[in-house]
Write a structure and sequence with these properties.
59% helix; 0% strand; globular; mainly alpha; 133 residues
């Protein structure tokens, strides 16, 4: 699933640092909403978001809202492999935004946000077990 959204159009007009800032702001807003926090409350970038009180269901809801705003799929394994807001923003900045905005990537192959296949398979199995009927 990839489509151009108003947010992606806005991001295309920004420099790379401005894009990162905008995506971080978006992610923080989604996490604040899920945690029932006010706009003024700060969310630490490097703290495990499960330690902040999020559940796997809430993280999946955040993922779905981010996907809708960005118009693309976000790898679920990334959200569970290293569950910090900093890691999610890094993944979005380095793996998702270049594709959406047409920015060329500086490196080929395995990027900073990529989850190793073995870990991805493990996380997928755990999620399947968790959400099995």
């Amino acid at each position: 699933m990839t489509k151009t959204t108003p947010l992606v159009e806005q991001l295309r007009g920004l420099s790379r640092p401005e894009r990162r800032s905008r995506v971080e702001e978006l992610a923080r807003s989604e996490f604040r909403t899920a945690l029932l926090m006010s706009e003024g409350e700060e969310i630490p970038l490097d703290q495990n978001y499960f330690d902040l009180g999020l559940t796997s269901l809430r993280v999946t809801e955040i993922k779905q809202r981010l996907e809708a705003q960005l118009g693309c799929a976000i790898d679920t394994a990334v959200l569970f492999a290293v569950p910090t807001l900093a890691r999610l923003v890094e993944y979005l900045q380095n793996e998702i935004l270049p594709t959406l905005t047409g920015e060329s990537t500086a490196s080929e192959g395995r990027g900073a946000g990529t989850v190793p296949p073995a870990r991805k398979a493990l996380i997928t199995d755990l999620l399947n077990d968790l959400y099995r009927d």
